């Protein structure tokens, strides 16, 4: 059973995308951003054989799964990326991509043309050590999870450091933060990956609270990757280590969780329509087996590797202009869309 | 002050090279308060099994999180070998991986192979019966040796043949009829959703949503429940019975004993020659065989016997094994500390291991890799020497900084440096010829001490002595 409580906050709608090394498709999509016009820019890490970047790209589609384009280039040169880790769109429509190997921010227009880059390696205010999350406030300031510096840094869109948040050994301190978002209340929400919790800070960077404790049961978190907040103030946590999405009230009470319910996407149906042998053998397969003798029945990573409909590697959440929740799964190369 | 190397430190270093991937002098000092036997026991039953950890690796290497292709799982394992606090477990995992060699090109499923490696790790010290039973049910092995095509009334002998020839008894200890009866007993041992999963493997298809992990299925409708005769035993034998009968054979005990001797003590000839060429130390094999039968086929107790034996401790077997590329690269990485967090240099390290001739998790055939001097050939020796000397002389790496600092602290003169370098790198021995070269380099070059130390380390890494363990 995919859902343990009534579908009050999460209702599966459909799936977008499928695995393809190059071109139309995704290959290790680890983050996405949905534009106000409904275009989805999916950041693909690509293949890593011998450190090559085959398949590394941004795939552009829309919320109706119409394919538009791909762009982006592997490398370490100007506006190239090596380990692209997060993508966001500025209020004026430019794409900002962080690279957690090169420790820089790459700026492209919505067609993928290079516009600039900034950032360098280090521990100082203007430096980054494995940036892995990026978002904007309404003023166009850039918020970046600076993973191995254990903090969030706020910059102007030109890379001038404004403020550092969460750099502390105290309760407000972050430990290897991953993604982050700005809520409708203008507060900053951070997936505090290393501490198994979600932290919130006000717009001035003052610590407000932390949700969640380490664990596998409902309401507990294991290495959260992302967090978004809807208009009602409900908090959606991408519980990456537990391969699920959890919903909390704004005061941190557990409301609901979902393990994923994916069906075939439009692109996947297209694939099977021209690959008859696979379609035929798939049609007689039982992909919903529940009595698999798992080596570790508590290991959600192992379970999700066996059951295709479940989330496997959910690493990115976006609430689109249509008010739906877009969940990007790096290991399943797709986006599951939920009504919220 | 000139540090001295005690004989017991040399024995300890020998143990850690063979039962692990080597230890620096600092690491050896941390365990030197324990007796030799207690150290062996702690290697076999470690309290601390921590390593870098799966979560942090999967966060940065997405290929390691779903392992769609051929190298991610090997890189993932290399992280573990390079950072684990329980190296003997990884060494035994490698031991079983070398015996139950399962190649990637036919399985075409990295995660499934990773689950096989996990099974070797979990089972590595168990009794042989349990290990062989799990191997027989392992989905990667089933696909690798075609047991999904082994049907009631139409047997496929591939798994049955290799189980007897390469996994347990060795050629000359069974008949062709035994192979056929063995295959009959394993009919119906297959994987769930066989047709779809095989179709995907055949096409290397990761569509629509990446690989789907496999699991074992016993298909009673395809199993031959008829009477069989195997190695003289008659009855309605199934796969479990076959494994039980195999594990009770003296030839099986001798086969596993020789495999352990080959892996931990000194290089033997490749397995296909074992029926013609006797073991290097028959008395040692007898001792291990006795341990096997005295302890209900326990691999753990065989290993304990081996590591505490005089034939293991003997000076005569030290530096008599050529390091496999995995042992060489892992040993270097444990000294340099380069893999202190997930990083792209992993691709370089793993690629070098492959250039040296060992693609971890993708053995060339069902025979696995031929160990010993077959690792050393014109191309691979250049890779081995260049890799080790380049990495160990890289003063920017955290482990090398520490080694150089320690050597600087204990060296009173240039003449001290060669011996202190050998000590810090793991209480190593080198030939007199190598030592003369190190001494000449240390005494006669007019460069800063740090550069002398770095240079001596580079020469040690490039020496013939460093190729063995």
State the total count of DSSP E strands of chain A: 26
Helix content of chain A: under 10%
* Number of helical regions of chain A: 3
- Major β-sheet strand ordering of chain B: 1-2
Distance from first to last alpha carbon of chain A: 19 Å
Structural class based on helices, strands and sheet pairing of chain A: mainly beta
What are the segments of chain A in which pLDDT stays under 50 over at least 5 consecutive residues? 1-5
**Count of alpha/pi helices of chain B:** 26
SSE order of chain A in H/E notation? Answer: EEEEEEEEEEEEEEEEEEEEEEEHHHEEE
- Give the assembly state of these chains: heterodimer
Largest inter-chain contact set: A-B, 55 and 45 residues
| Radius of gyration of chain B (Å) | 24 Å
Q: Give the distance, in angstroms, between the N- and C-terminal Cα atoms of chain B.
A: 28 Å
- If you compute it from the alpha carbons, what radius of gyration of chain A comes out, rounded to the nearest whole angstrom? 19 Å
Mean of the pLDDT scores of chain B? 95
Low-confidence stretches of chain B: 1-5
**Tally of structural domains of chain B:** 3
Largest β-sheet summary of chain B = 2 strands, antiparallel
Write down the overall geometry of chain B. globular
Please give a structural write-up:
The complex is a heterodimer of chains A (340) and B (469). Chain A is mostly beta strands. In chain A, 7% of the residues lie in helices and 38% in strands. Chain A has three helices and 26 strands. In chain A, the strands form seven sheets. Chain A has a four-stranded antiparallel sheet, with no helix packed on it. In chain A, β7 (95-99) and β8 form a beta hairpin. The two termini of chain A are 19 Å apart. The relative contact order of chain A is 0.15. By secondary structure, chain B is mainly alpha-helical. Chain B folds into three domains: 5-44, no CATH class; 54-317, no CATH class; 325-467, no CATH class. In chain B, 57% of the residues lie in helices and 3% in strands. Chain B has 26 helices and four strands. Chain B has helices at residues 7-19, 25-31, 36-44, 54-60, 62-66, 72-83, 87-99, 104-107, 110-123, 128-137, 139-144, 158-165, 176-185, 194-203, 239-247, 250-264, 282-294, 299-308, 310-313, 325-336, 345-355, 378-392, 398-410, 416-424, 432-444, 449-462, and strands at 189-191, 216-218, 228-230, 233-235. Chain B starts with 6 loop residues before the first helix and ends in a 7-residue tail after the last helix.
């Amino acid at each position: 059973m995919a859902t343990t409580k009534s579908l009050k906050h999460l209702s599966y709608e459909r799936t977008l995308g499928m695995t393809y090394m190059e071109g139309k498709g995704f290959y290790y999509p680890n983050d996405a951003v949905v534009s106000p016009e409904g275009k989805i820019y999916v950041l693909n890490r690509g293949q890593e054989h011998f450190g090559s970047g085959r398949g590394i790209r941004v795939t552009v589609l829309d919320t109706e799964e119409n394919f538009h384009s791909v762009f982006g280039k592997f490398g370490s040169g100007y506006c190239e990326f090596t380990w692209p880790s997060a993508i966001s769109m500025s209020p004026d429509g430019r794409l900002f991509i962080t690279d957690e190997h090169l420790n820089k921010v790459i700026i492209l227009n919505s067609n993928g043309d290079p516009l600039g880059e900034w950032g360098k390696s280090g521990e100082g205010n203007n430096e980054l050590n494995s940036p892995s999350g990026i978002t904007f406030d309404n003023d166009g300031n850039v918020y970046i999870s600076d993973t191995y510096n254990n903090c969030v840094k706020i910059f102007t869109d030109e890379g001038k450091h404004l403020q550092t948040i969460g750099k502390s050994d105290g309760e407000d301190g972050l430990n290897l933060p991953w993604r982050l978002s700005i809520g409708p209340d203008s507060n900053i929400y951070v997936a505090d990956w290393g501490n198994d919790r979600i932290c919130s800070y006000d717009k001035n960077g003052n610590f407000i609270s932390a949700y969640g404790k380490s664990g596998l049961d409902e309401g507990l978190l294991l290495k959260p990757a992302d967090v978004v907040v809807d208009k009602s103030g409900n908090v959606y946590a991408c519980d990456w280590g537990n391969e699920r999405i959890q919903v909390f009230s704004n005061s941190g009470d557990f409301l609901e969780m979902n393990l994923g319910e994916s069906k075939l996407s439009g692109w996947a149906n297209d694939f099977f329509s021209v690959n008859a042998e696979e379609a035929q053998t798939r049609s007689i397969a039982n992909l919903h087996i529940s009595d698999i003798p798992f080596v570790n029945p508590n290991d959600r990573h192992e379970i999700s590797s066996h059951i295709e409909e479940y989330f496997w590697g959910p690493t990115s959440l976006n609430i689109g202009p249509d008010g739906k929740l877009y969940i990007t799964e790096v290991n399943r190369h797709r986006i599951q869309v939920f009504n919220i | 002050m000139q540090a001295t190397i005690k004989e017991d430190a040399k024995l300890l270093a020998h143990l850690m090279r063979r039962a692990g991937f080597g230890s620096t002098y600092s690491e050896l000092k941390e365990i030197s308060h324990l007796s030799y036997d207690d150290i062996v026991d702690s290697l076999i039953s470690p309290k601390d099994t921590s390593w870098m950890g799966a979560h942090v690796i999967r966060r940065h290497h997405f290929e390691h999180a779903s392992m769609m292709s051929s190298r991610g799982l090997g890189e993932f394992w290399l992280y573990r070998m390079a950072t684990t606090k329980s190296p003997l477990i990884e060494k035994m995992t490698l031991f079983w991986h070398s015996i139950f060699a399962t190649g990637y090109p036919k399985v075409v499923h990295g995660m499934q192979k990773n689950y096989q490696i996990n099974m070797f790790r979990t089972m590595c010290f168990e009794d042989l019966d349990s290990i062989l039973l799990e191997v027989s049910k392992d989905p990667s092995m089933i696909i690798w040796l075609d047991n999904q095509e082994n049907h009631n009334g139409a047997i496929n002998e591939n798994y049955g043949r290799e189980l007897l020839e390469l996994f347990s008894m060795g050629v000359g200890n069974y008949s062709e009829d035994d192979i056929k009866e063995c295959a009959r007993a394993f009919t119906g041992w297959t994987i769930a959703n066989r047709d779809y999963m095989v179709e995907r493997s055949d096409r290397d298809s990761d569509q629509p949503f990446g690989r789907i992990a496999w699991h074992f299925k016993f298909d009673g409708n395809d199993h031959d429940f008829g009477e069989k005769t195997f190695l003289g035993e008659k009855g309605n034998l199934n796969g479990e019975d076959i494994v039980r009968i195999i594990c009770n054979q003296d030839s099986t005990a001798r086969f596993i004993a020789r495999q352990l001797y080959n892996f931990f003590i000194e290089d033997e000839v490749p397995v296909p020659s074992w029926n013609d060429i006797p073991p290097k130390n028959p008395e040692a094999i007898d001792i291990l065989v006795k341990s096997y039968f005295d302890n209900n086929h326990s691999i753990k107790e065989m290993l304990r016997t081996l590591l505490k034996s005089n034939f293991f401790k003997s000076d005569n077997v030290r530096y008599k094994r050529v390091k496999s590329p995995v042992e060489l690269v892992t040993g270097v990485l444990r000294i340099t500390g380069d893999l202190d967090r997930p990083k792209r240099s992993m691709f370089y390290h793993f690629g070098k291991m492959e250039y040296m001739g060992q693609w971890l998790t993708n053995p060339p055939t069902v025979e696995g890799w031929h160990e010993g001097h077959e690792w050393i050939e014109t191309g691979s020796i250049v890779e081995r020497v260049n890799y080790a000397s380049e990495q160990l002389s890289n003063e920017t790496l955290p482990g090398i900084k520490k080694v150089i600092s320690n050597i600087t602290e204990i060296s009173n003169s240039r003449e001290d440096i060669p011996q202190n370098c050998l000590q810090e790198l793991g209480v190593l021995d080198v030939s007199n010829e190598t030592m003369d070269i190190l001494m000449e380099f240390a005494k006669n070059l007019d460069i800063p001490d740090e550069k002398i130390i770095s240079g001596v380390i580079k020469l040690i890494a490039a020496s013939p002595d460093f190729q063995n363990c």
